[in-house]
Amino acid sequence: MSNLVIRSLERNESWSKAQAKARAATCIIHVSNPDSFVSIGASISQGTGTLVDASRGIVLTCSRVIGNGPSLGHAVFGTKEYRIERLYSDPVHDFTFVKLLTKNGQIPEDLPEGINLHPEQAYQGCKICTVSNPGGQESNIGQGYISRTNSNVREWDFDECNTELMTAAMNCEGGSIGCSAINIQGNGLGIMIGFEGTVINLLPVDLPRKALERLQDDAPVNRGTLQVKWELKPLYECDRLQLGQEWLSRFEDEGVEYLVCAKVVLPQGPADGKVKPGHILLQLDDKLVTSLLQVDLYMDAHINEKVGLTLWNGSSSNDVECCIEDLHNLTPHHLIARQGTVFFNMDLLTAFEFNIPVKGVISSATFQPPFVGPSLIESIQGTAFSSSEAMATVFEANHKHRFITICFKNICSHSLSTPRTGYQLTIMDKPWFEMRRHPQQGGPWVITSMTRPTIIQRPLSHLQNCEASVPQPLLPDNDKPNTGVKEIFRATFSFRANRNIFSDGNCDNNHLGFGLVCDVKQGLAVVRRGTFSMFDEVTITINGRINISASVGFLHPALDLAVLKFDPVGIANAFMSDPTLTDNPLRQGDTVYHAPFGLSGNIINETQVENIDEDSAYRFHDDTSPFTAFSCTTCHLRIPPKTYQTEGILLNQDGTVAGLMLPSCAIIPSALIRSMIEYVRSGQVGKLMFRDFDVHRMLLADAFLQGLDRKWGEAITHKHVLCVGKVPIESPLLSSSMIKHPLRHGDIILKVEGLRVSTVSEVGFHYLKPVLSILLFRNGEEIEVEVPTLSLQDVTIDTVVSFCGSWLQKPPLATRMSGRPVHSQVYTTAFMKGGQADMFELKNGAFIVGVDGNTISTMADFVGHVAKIPFEKYFRVEFIPETQEHRVITMMKSVIGPTLLWRKLPSQNEEKVTVSVVDDEQWSQGWTLPRAKSERILLEPPKY
To answer: Pfam families per the record (predicted)?
Structure first.
């Protein structure tokens, strides 16, 4: 055997040993970041870590995996899981050390051998290997060569600065972030901090090794800065910047190819006015600068000392003197978490991103009002402060005020960079807290509570006498809405709707939202209909601490409005009263107060009504369309530029509720809300009837061109008439024989029940009559037609069948109004991925018209025929999809997925849902599930 072959085999054996060592030292890390902090939002992340000290249980990974804020996480080595605790996070470089702990808080004793860090062994052309666990799967091994050792940080990467990156060509996956690149000796050369296509970016381990040595010696990690962001420029580009020939020769003699140049110099920093962007750093205390690493290490060794910098300013060299600051003092080590928003001192990376001083307090990148993106907080209640510690003192001094005035300035957008004032409601029963790093130099966060819930301990009279600190710019001089505003905010609530039964095309397991309690004594509240279904299990949270089970009492078929029912006994200690719903409609120019719903707390803004549109097409901003929303009234408010109207409550100057603000500027007037609440309260909501056609405006001039008599121009007060928009092909009811609908698209409506109409509100959305008498203009003549209305039972989905992974119901009103013929009462509304329906391509929006040659017209027909089909046997299903062609497929029922029939039963005391298995007689017994107790009776699957 030749020496070449022997060396090749030895080299392969060396690589195998190195890879085996790396695989044993590699772990998968799962981290939860519950709060937004710096550039990382509240999220769940996953990455790879490398064991670097087995005796101390120290693992090295990326900071973007762990996050710089409070986090919880664990690491998995093979089949063993350990809790992780942050040891040190670098303020500006993307590396973090965490410590492994067992359930007893001890360092594991059976850890494999760690990877040694040897940055000096990295060179251009060096072969490397990475071992990672993308997605927590088997180890992913990649091989490549280091192509560059002096790359700049990417422009869009705000988690790293002032370092020289290495690059290599290698395939990798998202979960590989944080893994180490090793050489043939099994030593770590770099940390993967990102990739673009097949090019990975590696952070050299020079600084991580220095920090690890300090941690092993139980010594603090020293980090210095001049508040300057440096970058590398090639020597030929520095020649273009007219660098003197003397300096060029010195660098060429040293073999330097890249020089260090200033990119960003922060205002009010130690280098402000001395160093400018574009300056080339030539020397530090008469020592030639050859790399960014040299600059980093020199600053770390001279904290709080003055150093001399020799700079090239474009024409000559000059010497300046700057004092190096402690970088850890410019890193947030204290934060305040208050009602969904985190406040902390300005950090260096954020200052570099927006070129602002490292001073003051900023908010997290929450997109909840009043803070749109990161904001610089200038004052609270008129009191200015310079640190988060001082801010906490101001919060504590004003914790009894119901409203807190916050002056802030957005730092992301130039159009929002001027100071603005927002008002945040202090929820007395919702705790807010502060956190501190311990130790301060990049250590873990320690949580200490700042305030505790006080509403339970305070008597009712004391709470009622609590004064609101609403500033004068918000309220008029007489301060009339003060009491009304406080009562409104006490009557608001958040809710979580869990969904295990899918209907109306909604496959989301849960969704969140907000609402308004309208009847405290009987337990009635209004919310957006949104993605609600009658089968949702709803939990509402009042005052941030009272959780009450609720049920869906009413879903309006044509408006984005729903009524929830709950037990009023549960809010006996909430100190709430019914809000006052006014009958007066909003007018253009009215002064109103917009109280938006939001996760970051309640605020209120004074504004004016710019425009009222009585006929607008309703559109969802959140891409939810479980029903056909008819044209409605919209209200446009006068708001600051670059902002938008959010969902919330509109208040009049006297503190009464004018309506609910919905997406697309739509409003539900208070008069309509009160009428719906009264129908539900009296138990008469079942008698309501609804129209199944939409209307929209047409100019009178266009109507005259069609031949409309001009006498109607004098009779109608507006400059437009109403014409029919969306209308079903068939009528009147979903459950009876279909006949041709009496209305046609484009019909001009002149009178409804003998009254002239020219706005949507005049037509109405619900009635007490089974038939509407409508005078309309069609084909050059006026005719009167009788239009049947729909009952609540006709438009309510109260029966759902789960069949082979598909969810079936009767066709909703939205489907009927889309212009499609109704072929049967069995309609596919949702399907589960990976189920039988997905496999056999029974998709959403299809009408099932036959099963094994039997015609299907009702849900009872379908259930009856499906129950007779044995398991594990193919049968035929005939359906008509949205494309309207007749299709036939074969399917097979699985024993582990029986056909379930869900029904919602009306009840005065509690909501009841029955479920029965219809596939076999032994499953025919039904179970009643009391939803008020949130109980679920699990069906025992058949044995097979």
So the answer is: Trypsin_2
Residues 33 and 168 in one domain: yes
Q: What is the 3-state secondary structure (H, E, C) of 154-220?
A: CCCCCCCCCCCEEEEECCCCHHHCCCEEECCCCCEEEEEEEEECCEEEEEECHHHHHHHHHHHCCCC
The structure tokens listed for 352 are 């570099």
Residue 728 has pLDDT above 60, yes or no: yes
Summarize the confidence of residues 561-572 as an average pLDDT: 82
Measured in whole angstroms, the distance separating CA 730 from the mean position of its chain's CA atoms is: 41
What CA dihedral angle connects 14, 19, 24 and 27, to 10 degrees? 160
CB within 8 A of 54, min separation 6: which ones? 111, 112, 113, 114
Number of domains comprising the chain? 7
For residue 433, which of 450, 419, 417 has the smallest C-alpha distance? 450
Is the model more confident about 693 or about 530? 693
Residue 342, SS3?
strand
Instruction: Give yes or no: residues 166 and 45 share one domain.
Output: yes
d(CA 487, CA 502): 36
Residue 632's contacts (CB-CB under 8 Å, 6 or more residues apart) are 559, 616, 618, 666, 667, 668, 760
From the list 615, 626, 601, the residue with the least C-alpha distance to 666 is: 615
268: domain CATH number is 2.30.42.10
CA distance 301 to 389: 29
593 half-sphere exposure, CB direction, 13 A CA radius: 27
Section 159-175 average pLDDT: 81
Chain segment 637-678, per-residue pLDDT in tens: 776 554 456 778 888 877 788 888 877 677 788 888 888 888
Containing structural domain, residue 149: 16-216
H or E stretch including 671?
helix 670-682
The 3-state DSSP class for residue 865 equals helix
Question: What pLDDT sits at residue 600?
Answer: 42
Summarize pLDDT for 906-931 with one digit per residue, the tens: 654 455 666 666 654 433 333 333 33
Per-residue pLDDT tens for 854-871? 999 888 899 888 888 877
How would residue 434 be classed by pLDDT, with cut points 50, 70 and 90?
confident
Residue 70 DSSP class: -
Tell whether 717 and 844 lie within a shared domain: no
Whether 201 is covered by a domain: the verdict is yes
Identify whether 476 is part of a domain.
no
Residues 668, 734 within the same domain: no
Residues paired with 284 in a beta bridge: 287, 309
**Euclidean distance between CA atoms 877 and 808, whole angstroms:** 14
284 close to 298: Cβ distance less than 8 angstroms: yes
- Main-chain dihedrals φ then ψ at residue 865, nearest 5 degrees: -75, -35
Residue with tokens 């939205």: 814
- Helix, strand, or coil (residue 888): strand
Q: What is the pLDDT of residue 33?
A: 74
In contact, 453 and 501? CB cutoff 8 Å: no
Q: What is the pLDDT of residue 323?
A: 94
Look-up: residue for tokens 């008020």? Answer: 932
| Domain assignment present for 459 | no
Which residue, chain included where needed, has tokens 């530029």? 641
As a three-state string, the secondary structure of 565-607 is EECHHHHCCCCCCCCCECCCCCCCCCEEEEEECCCCCCCCEEE
- Residue 136 has a CB neighbour count (10 Å cut-off) of 12
Is the domain of 430 the same as that of 508? no
Residue 843 CB-half CA count within 13 A? 7
d(CA 865, CA 855): 10
Same domain, 680 and 692: no
Q: Are 231 and 152 in contact (CB under 8 A)?
A: yes
Residues 780, 731 share a domain:
yes
813 and 851 in a single domain? The answer is yes
Q: Note whether residue 474 is domain-resident.
A: no
Is the pLDDT confidence value at 367 over 50? no
Q: CA-to-CA distance for 647 and 624, rounded, in angstroms?
A: 15
Tokens matching residue 679: 């129908």
Average pLDDT, the chain: 78
